[in-house]
Amino acid sequence: MIDHVTGIVLGAGDSTRMGGRKQQLEFGNTTLLGWAVRQAEASSLDEVVIVTSPDDVPPPHGRARTAVNDQPSRGSVSSLMAGVEAAGAVAVMVLLGDMPGVSTATIENMLEPWRADPRWAAVAHYHDGLGHPLILSPFLAASLATKKGDKVLWPLLESAPDSEVLFVDINQPRPMDVNTHDDYVLACQQLGFEPK
Q1: At residue 170, what are phi and psi to the nearest 5 degrees?
Q2: 46: nearest Cα among 101, 90, 81
Q3: Pure H helices in 12-152
Q4: CA atoms within 13 A on the CB side of 189
Q5: What ranges in the chain are assigned the alpha helix state H?
Q6: What pLDDT, in 10s, does the model give residues 85-112?
Q7: How crowded is residue 182: how many other Cβ atoms within 10 Å of its Cβ?
Q8: Which candidate, 101, 20, 31, places its Cα nearest to that of 61?
Q9: Range 5-87+97-190 classified under CATH 3.90.550.10
Q10: pTM for the complete prediction?
Q11: What is the four-CA torsion angle of 124, 143, 78, 86, rounded to 10 degrees?
């Protein structure tokens, strides 16, 4: 179903640049990953799937359910495919568990034009460039099963005809990824939280 969109929150990364499990860093009254999941759960996404590593399976969490990536070292595409498999043959929105600047409003701003004009894919277009979240049609999501590595989506999207990709204007700077402790401190400050 094209109009059914499952949000896949990727949270199984190794956090090598952080030197620890960044997904579990305190963020407000939850964790960094929990914050991303909370934004997705508060949206009109039809379903939310959290992808984690075997060591990081969270307790039951709102309306989200969990998919486990048994091989997180194979790159982010392995996490995405674990989420796609759990979601089934539907369109998916790819959300990053380390990008707290993607709010519920951002998710809604992506969903509305996609549901009005579903294409092969949709990409958020911020003031300073393209970024997440992304929406993938069921066909595109299923085709990723043959891919490996960390950076497979962007080359596919860049090679697609513009008519196949919906670029959704988001009226804000591109949200930052939290990859280092300094990033974490800055992300906390941006949202008024005390870093730990």
Answers
A1: -115, 120
A2: 90
A3: 32-41, 76-87, 104-116, 138-143
A4: 7
A5: 32-41, 76-87, 104-116, 138-143, 153-159, 181-190
A6: 999 888 999 999 999 999 999 999 999 9
A7: 10
A8: 31
A9: yes
A10: 0.90
A11: 90
